[in-house]
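Question (not urgent): is this output format expected?
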Amino acid sequence: MIAAASVLRTTATSPVLWAILGGFLIGALITLAAGHDPVSVYWEILQGAVAGPNLAESIARAVPLVGMALVAAIPLRGGMVNLGGDGQLLLGGLVAALVALYLPAPGLVRLAVAMVAAMAVSGAYAALAAWGEVRFGVPLLISTLLLSYPAKGVTSYLARFPLRDPSTGMPETFRIDEAARLPVLVPGTPITWGLVLLLLVIAAVVFTDRRGTAGYELRLRGLNSRFAAYGGVELGRQTVRVLFASGAVAGLVGAILVLGDQFRFTDGALLSPAYTWSGLMAALLAMGEPIGAICAGLFFAALQTGGFAMERATEVPRVLTLVLQAVIILLLAMRHGLRRQPSGGR
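Got this back:
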């Protein structure tokens, strides 16, 4: 039985490994076509990701990226899709900034309340999309994506006009004082206590997925939603709960970025690194499995951090790392698509 489980795990992970190898091979061909040595380019990516102080940069970048990978992976585990990570991230960041700025309480209280409020608001906003599917039949794929646009518009307006700090020339709120910021975890690095919060979230998600009843029911739904409903799973309530949990994680990521790195909410600053879409690709690479999504998120974070060093050292644009991410996902999708094709179809 142990041997069979090992074979199953190897079979499941081999397409991912082949997709990664294929992606790097295609990246090498692109690099050669541009007149650069792929070995030196990949070496610079590796050094730029893990050598010396670059490792701390990779870890700091991995916190929001892995967090957004979980945002996508949690519903994907049950065959649901949350494409509204951008809007949920923005709402969490803005709510965290407002609570940290204006709540009349000591700094640590403002920090704690800001985190909880960000998770609650973003979770409720994601659950709104779930309610739309359960009550009115609007697919999550559409509702989560479209609800991002009102969130972007409202947060942009508030940062540009009523909440704007007039002392700067940027569309941003006032600066959060040090008492309400996330403390630095490792002195001299950008790593904050947000890493600890993320590790707690990871532990909760993995434990629920592997040991909890809710995780079992979610996996069952991902395999066969009709069978899950027949077995007593209330799919409507489950949809709302899962989307709330997914949105709450996105809100926490927004709060970590605002309270631990930017110290104010700036219009567009949370979206420019594209954490949502990199996280979605990581979740797709892992096919919704939480531990796989975490590993893929770490891999993409290291790849992106190394891309900055590669660009400085070789003059190859760091967009190559984004191309690698896209090609890897595309190859994985092609592999699964070919496996599903009937052998004797027309």
